[in-house]
Design goal:
The complex is a heterodimer. Chain A has helices at residues 45-59, 81-90, 108-122, 142-150, 205-212, 228-233, 259-277; strands spanning 7-12, 14-16, 41-43, 69-76, 94-99, 127-131, 154-163, 169-175, 178-184, 188-192, 217-219, 237-244, 252-253. Chain A is α/β, with parallel strands linked by helices. Chain A folds into two domains: 7-233, HUPs (Rossmann fold, 3-Layer(aba) Sandwich); 253-278, no CATH class. In chain A, the strands form two sheets. A nine-stranded mixed β-sheet of chain A has the order 9-8-7-10-6-1-4-5-11, with helices on both faces. In chain A, strands 2-3 form a two-stranded antiparallel ribbon. The chains are: A alpha/beta, B alpha/beta.
Chain lengths: 278, 325
Amino acid sequence: MGDKKMRVLISFKVVPDLDLLRDKDWTINNNLPVQTAYVKKVINAYDESALELALKMVERYKSDDQKPELIALTVGETYADIFLKKLLALGFNKTYRVQNNLDLRFNPYATAMIISAFAKKYGPFDLIAMGMQSSDGDNAKTALLTAEELAWPCITGVTGFEPAVAGLFAVSSISDQGLVNQTVHPPCILAVGNAPSSLLRVPTLRAIKTAAEKDIGLLSPESLNCKPETLASGNDTELRELEAVNNTRDGIIIEGATAEEKARLLYENHLKGWLNCR
Amino acid sequence: MKYKAIINACSPAYKARSEEIAYFIKANRSVIGNAYEADEAVVFYNDEHTGAEIESCLPFKTISMVKIKHYQPELILNILEESECDSPAEIYIFSGDLAGNELAARFAWRFNGSSLVAVENITKEEDLFIGRKKVYSGNLHGSFLFRKKPYCFSLARGLKRLETDMDAEKKYLTFHDYSSTAPGAYLDNYMESPKEEENKLESASFVIATGRGTGSSKEISRLQNIARELGAEFGVSRPVVMNAWAPLDRLIGASGAVIGPEVCLALAVSGSPPFYYGIEKSKIIIAVNRDEHAPILKAADIVIIDDYKIVIDTLFKLLRDEKGA
């Protein structure tokens, strides 16, 4: 275990639960981003894994004195506060929200600039972890740009991290080559990918009650020396158009009195010849 | 326009990823231009494959081979920064894999250019360079203007491939060896458990895919056994992996394997866009789902609206009887 108390920042995004949208909900008006304000909000799946992995990492420390300080940060509207309270209930020491009025869905530059500015002002941090991609923008760039802005190394596809000897961290990840286990000196950015068994745990009712009295740090981009106009213009790409994805196929429905009969018809009419010829 | 392809040949799937880039270049000649002399690739490789083995199967005329100890983005970015600073290309095309995504975004930052990840195609409107990719978890396509050169992008996974022409004219090669260069002071220890080969799911002709609707790890194991008996590869959606009901190498979807079998039998999957991304290249999709409103039913060729358990058990019995007959 490390000798000094570590500080770990987890940045997460609250997104609409896109699984709740049906085809007709994907209406595109004048190429404007889709209206999802009315849709139930969830923590972005990869960010959820990053938060849970951080909690698991803290559990690896035996002594309370050595347990890293966990800080959660999100950039977004007030609807994120309920999730920040939940994180306080789960054991995060501090939570912050940067109130933001820009549409960040396709602007990973702005998000990365805000996270970097926060890390500089409220750091030092030993690790900054976040999901590798969000479900709305699908930009997959925020962690990478944060690493570049801070000039820190970045490990992607992370599936776990835990303390190692002498203040180092052991990081496991999936790469194109296979499984990778690295021991790294902080500071480092971790972009969390498909981490098995990383659904965020549920806090106890008592913890929720206690957390309700704790404060969320409310910041503005300006308080972090981020000018909104620069955040908007600094993005290297610009969304020009959105269009529906058409996945429609024939959809021949096999009718039958029972499931067995339908399976038999599928086999006889569509699969038998092919399976036997392979 | 002068362009370069950047390839991670430390990956066992480097040939497929290179052929995807080659097809992309061919399909987008009207945008990129016909500057064949610019048909150049920078290839990072290590001891997993020999340089000769790699250059013989890559469809590029000019290849810059860079030997490294193992794939390490910090080192690769530093090497590219040094090698490209004198006369950077206008376009950098990165492979459709994890390496391509991370290198594209970080390289663009260092060269004050612009980047997109998982691009499906590009267009040019007068002087405007535009990349198209899936957004909103695959529910929509977004077209994005690249604001600054160099334009750096990784390809979407599972694009078409252009097979290597082994009789192509002579290749021009350069070699650089960075295999003894450390990636950076931050790294204390590094250990890789390499994949032996390309994911079998991606080359299978028959795949049985399933999702959270199966309800338990026990049921997933049962289906995996049936798939084996039927001679099919077995794949699952992300929630199944997140619940640890199946290992990561079985994952199909935007962040897993992108398959293109003759037949994909989708059992109890809703067909959410991130999952469908992984099976959309299948020639025939057969969907079995009790929910008549499940999105997969509209996106399949053949549909059974019923209990998948009875359907797969009956199919298994029919095939076993046939074999035994």
